Amino acid sequence: MTVAPDVLAALFNLSGSSDLAERFNLAPSQEAPVIVRDETGEGRALATMRWGLVPSWARDSKIAHRTINARSETAAEKPSFRSAFKRRRCLVPASWFYEWQGEAGTKVPYRIQRADGRPLAFAGLWERWKGSATEPARTSFTVLTTSANDDVAPLHDRMPCLIEPGDFDRWLTPEVEDPDATRRLLDPAPAGLLTLDRVSSRLNSVRNEGPGLMTPDTLF
DNA sequence: CCAGACGTTGTT
DNA sequence: GTCTGG
DNA sequence: CCAGACGTTGTT
DNA sequence: GTCTGG
Asked: What H or E segment, with its residue span, contains residue A123?
């Protein structure tokens, strides 16, 4: 997430802009910016939530490690996601995303971004969790996935659901929903939209950050 | 009735 | 919270 | 998603 | 192998 605050505000029609630090290695379980409908339901607001959706009924947050993604084909029916699918949708802004190739221990990451350089918006769901005796309350989100298109297929058979600016309201406003129209919103992006570039395997550790991670490893 | 699950990805 | 399994 | 830990006893 | 941490 390296999108400049003013670009983010303009793209998502946010009132006011906040100072977000650039993130080149934003991993599951970390806090990330998301766009939600504001309290009135009319406008949009930027929020910070933790990646890995904890359902409201969860006893602890362990499930979050397995709810970083939700299959768009089934999320409306799954106990962990259906409530959020009905009432709490969000858009997750991203400059790009990563997929890995190769064996455990020698995984090579690829950056996947729009060929035209514009930011991406993932379809997401969010939820509030009350916390427990040992854990504080949290607000968290998940990213919906669909079949990979031809651009991404060489690396992986799934990819995030990408929403176009003209469809932002259609995704965020479930009350105007027609199930078929919603399904189409979550279809794989058209082939040719995205390009792939190899980046540094230092990305594989969340300890590493910064623009230097975008340069592939050299052979030394 | 109560108990137990509730998830995705990747790898085998 | 809500569904499934027993 | 990937990386890294995974354990106890005894000693400082 | 499986869980935790980030």
From this structure: strand A120-129
The pLDDT of residue A177: 66
Q: Which residues of chain A have pLDDT under 70?
A: 176-177, 219-220
Does residue A85 reach within 7 angstroms of strand B, measured from its CB?
no
**Residue whose token pair is 């031809």:** A150
Stated pTM of the model? 0.93
ipTM: 0.74
- The b/e string for A90-103 (b: 16+ C-beta within 10 A; e otherwise) is bbbbbbbbbbbeee
Alpha-helical segments (H) within A146-206: 168-172, 179-185
Half-sphere exposure of A96 (CA within 13 A, CB side): 23
Pairwise CA distance, residues A109 & A119, whole Å: 19
Nearest by Cα to A120 from A194, A62, A16: A194
Q: How far, in Å, is the CA of A67 from the C1' of nucleotide D8?
A: 35
C-beta within 7 A of nucleic chain C, residues 74-133 of A: 79
